[in-house]
Design goal:
heterodimer, A: mainly alpha, Helix Hairpins, 8 helices, about 0% strand, B: globular
């Protein structure tokens, strides 16, 4: 442990620059992809590989510095604040999409359906006067431009099961944390393994649900505002769950390698926070996207 | 009373010092140089705009390119000049002001910086793509922006990329301020510049992810057939405006709050008095930040909101005048009966107070919904936000550079040239923007390369002011370079009335400062 009288400032590192370059390459690849450039996939692949390389290399350095006892309590606190505010920024990212869902349900669809005063009646009258407001929006104002779908995903099927899975994984990760604090490695590994497994099972069911939605119910991104909000919200959430599960997996491997002590296990806690965050977002999704 | 710092650890040499840096001063310098460079890139675009508007009719560029210039000028000045300059100052000064050895997360700090050149490479490259650069305005309203050519995905990704940089920078500042303060410095003993940056950081973390979400929806609307902003599918183009301005209005304060912080450092120093109403300044800053999240729709009074919405957003907007007024009166009260001197930083600070207040007043006019119906999307809006951002934010940044240059370089800048720079800038900026108020009130729309003959005179005057302002800034570069190379040696405390911990380390500040926590004396904590 570093002396508490002397501040710790990490030595210089190539990873920030590698990371910037990697993201730069990825974004160029993405841009090329949307412009139908035939070489887009190669650029994207190089970029993505470089991003992974950066993460592995950067975290490797940090883990080595941590296990060799270079970090003080103060560094630990900085990391905690960093992770906490990062998660808050993610919350605000999801807020934009929830905001879009609420706006569409509370304002744009009723207005298109003729509700409201003044100009809003005009929208209905002059654009699509036969349009009737409903949620989920099954008949679009201009049906010719959009893919019609048969039905929406009911809340009390796979989504309810997934809710149970994620909530259970929130419990198991807490049990793992208690085991870590009690110094019980066996239990730690067991509960953490269960958490990872529940995470990936969730993702599996989500993929199943998507297949059902696309193949049987004909819901696509092109299915008007319902399809847009459904896929974007659940899609970004699913991506975050996948990332969270990978992060948990890394923590599990580190636990197996004997990392972390009863008192000093910031990385474990950070990933656990992240996991609870995807859990809470899911509850929002379950209620507002699937249920009501 | 000089050395709280040791100079035994010299800066690493060569390229690696800069590209692999974990040093807050080096990264701060990189930020500042980058911001200045972008100030000239964005400025060159402004010169093209003013050249085109010198006379009615189309002279130099085609309308599409003109609109690209308007769009990219705004994006560069906001994300490439003012924000990075602010973060650069935060990097340099916050650790010095709170007695910290560095930023809390130095490597992430370096990544925040190194994203910027790549992000702007992405953005500026769009000007050379099939279909031209983005030309729908920096607000990127659909459906217009969806007509952008190949540039479109690159525009969106550039926004994502720069957003990542800003969020990391903000997280870093928060962690630094809350975790790295020297023992004995309470939150209410921090210099106001530090306070304004903490609050700005909260705004950044809350607002930028929302922008990322908004532009992501634009991307999927264009390429994946979603209908967030398409009424035919149950969405609404106006929805984009709501989400965008939920980011956009806090963004205004992201640009302005650090400027308030700078002015609150400079005015007490040259008035030789403590800042009047320190606590009320902190609370006013926090109030402005909170209010900034509930006023966004005053940017869209004319899109057809329900009357209730118009009224709510109008009154909420007026409310911001209260904490802003608190600040302006506190600055004036600080100067009241002070032993004032008028060195260049103070001149810029006083000009800031006057000219920013003019921008605030025109903002008040725009904030009244019924009146805004006439002013909306006219040159009055352009005049308003340039008073706030150029004679406001940029003048404050200039003030900060003159104020802290002696600490950075170890030399005093050329005071005479500094004053010339100030007077030329101030006169030119007013010649540039004041006539635009009249143009707007007379009905000249913004974002149009041609105009009715009745607007010719004021446009010509405005353009002359624009060229003068642009040329004057070359003098600024000369002054900064001259100061970096030599001059009169600066004392550790370069200004007689300066307060704060940064004046207790040597000038120039050594590569590493406060490697052990400093023992604070009462004198050091004086505000």
């Amino acid at each position: 442990m570093a002396s508490k009288d002397i501040y710790y400032v990490p030595h210089s590192s190539k990873w920030p620059l590698v990371g910037s370059l990697a993201l730069f390459t990825t974004f160029i690849g993405g841009g090329m992809l949307f412009n139908d450039n035939p070489n887009a996939n190669y650029v994207l692949l190089i970029g993505a590989a470089a991003v992974v390389y950066m993460f592995v290399g950067w975290f490797n350095d940090v883990i080595n510095e941590s296990t060799s006892g270079k970090y003080s309590k103060q560094v630990d606190t900085s990391f905690r604040m960093g992770m906490g505010w990062f998660i808050f920024s993610e919350v605000m990212f999801f807020a934009a999409f929830f905001g879009a869902l609420f706006y569409a349900r509370m304002f744009s669809i009723p207005w298109l359906g003729g509700e409201g005063h003044g100009g809003h009646n005009g929208t209905h009258q002059f654009l699509w006067d036969s349009f009737q407001a409903s949620w989920p929006l099954s008949v679009m104002p201009d049906p010719s431009k959009f893919t019609e779908y048969k039905d929406v995903i009911p809340a009390w099927g796979i989504p309810a099961l997934n809710t149970a899975l994620l909530l259970a994984s929130g419990v198991t990760v807490t049990l793992a944390h208690w085991a870590l604090k009690a110094g019980n490695r066996q239990k730690l590994v067991l509960w953490l393994f269960l958490t990872v497994a529940l995470g990936f099972i969730f993702v599996y069911f989500q993929v199943e649900e998507y297949a059902h939605a696309m193949n049987d119910l004909n819901i696509t991104l092109n299915s008007g505002i319902y399809g847009s909000t459904f896929y974007m919200l659940t899609g970004f959430h699913g991506f975050h769950v996948t990332m969270g599960a990978v992060m948990l997996l890394v923590i599990l491997l580190r636990c197996l390698k004997g990392h972390f002590t009863k008192k000093d296990h910031f990385a474990f806690e950070a990933v656990a926070w992240y996991w609870h965050f995807v859990d809470v977002v899911w509850l929002g999704l379950f209620i507002f996207v699937y249920w009501i | 009373m000089s050395t709280l710092a040791h100079d035994h650890d010299h800066a690493p040499s060569g390229l690696k010092r800069w590209i692999y840096s974990t040093n807050h001063k080096d990264i701060g310098t990189l930020y500042l140089i980058f911001a200045l460079t972008m100030f000239f890139v964005g400025g060159a675009m402004a010169m093209i705009i003013r050249a085109e508007l010198f006379q009615p009719g189309l002279q130099f560029v085609d309308p599409q390119f003109y609109n690209s210039m308007v769009t990219v000028h705004a994006l560069i000045m906001i994300f490439g000049a003012v924000m990075p300059a602010g973060v650069g100052l935060a990097n340099w000064m916050i650790p010095l002001m709170i007695g910290a050895p560095d930023m809390a997360l130095p490597r992430m700090n370096n990544m925040s910086f190194w994203i910027l050149p790549f992000g702007f490479a992405l953005l500026i490259s769009t000007l050379f793509m099939e279909g031209g650069g983005p030309a729908g305005g920096w607000t990127m309203y659909p459906p217009l922006v969806l007509q952008t050519g190949d540039a479109f995905p690159f525009l969106i990704f550039a926004i994502h990329f720069l957003g990542i940089s800003s969020i990391m920078g903000a997280i870093n500042i928060i962690a630094t301020v809350f975790n790295m303060r020297a023992p004995g410095m309470s939150l209410m003993q921090m210099p106001l510049f530090v306070w304004t940056w903490v609050i700005t950081s909260f705004l950044l973390i809350a607002a930028l992810p929302v922008l990322a979400g908004a532009v992501t929806m634009l991307l999927t609307d264009k390429y994946f057939g979603t209908s967030f902003f398409d009424a035919a599918g149950g969405g609404d183009p106006v929805m984009f405006q709501h989400i965008f301005w939920f980011f956009g209005h806090p963004e205004v304060y992201i640009l302005a709050l650090p400027a308030f912080g700078i002015i609150s450092q400079v005015i007490p120093a040259f008035s030789r008095k403590p800042l009047f109403g320190y606590a009320s300044m902190v609370y006013a800053t926090a109030s402005i930040a909170i209010l900034s999240f509930v006023v966004w729709a005053h940017h869209m009074f004319t899109v057809g909101m329900p009357l209730k919405g118009e009224l709510f957003f109008m009154y909420a907007t007026m409310l911001i005048a209260v904490p802003t007024g608190v600040k302006v009166f506190n600055w004036m009260a600080t100067m009241w009966r002070g032993a004032m001197t008028f060195e260049t930083p103070m001149l810029f600070a006083i000009a800031f107070v006057i000219l920013f207040t003019i921008g605030g007043f025109s903002g008040l006019m725009l904030g009244m919904a019924p009146v805004d119906f006439q002013y909306h999307d006219t040159y009055f809006v352009v005049a308003h936000f340039h008073y706030v951002l150029l004679t406001g934010a940029v003048f404050a940044l200039m003030s900060a550079v003159y104020y802290w240059l002696p600490k950075w370089t170890g030399y005093m800048y050329d005071e005479k040239l500094g004053k010339i720079h100030f007077w030329l800038s101030t006169i030119a900026a007013n010649v540039l923007f004041f006539p635009q108020h009249f143009l707007g009130l007379a009905g000249m729309p913004r974002r149009i390369p041609d105009y009715n003959i009745q607007f010719a005179d004021f446009n010509m005057i405005s353009s002359i002011g624009g060229f003068a302002y642009g040329l004057t800034q070359l003098l600024f570069v000369y002054i900064v370079i001259k100061c970096a190379l030599g001059g009169k040696k600066a004392k550790d405390k370069a200004w007689e009335g300066a307060r704060g911990l940064e004046w207790y380390v040597p000038s120039p500040a050594p590569h590493h400062t406060f490697e052990t926590p400093p023992k604070l004396t009462k004198q050091m904590l004086e505000m």
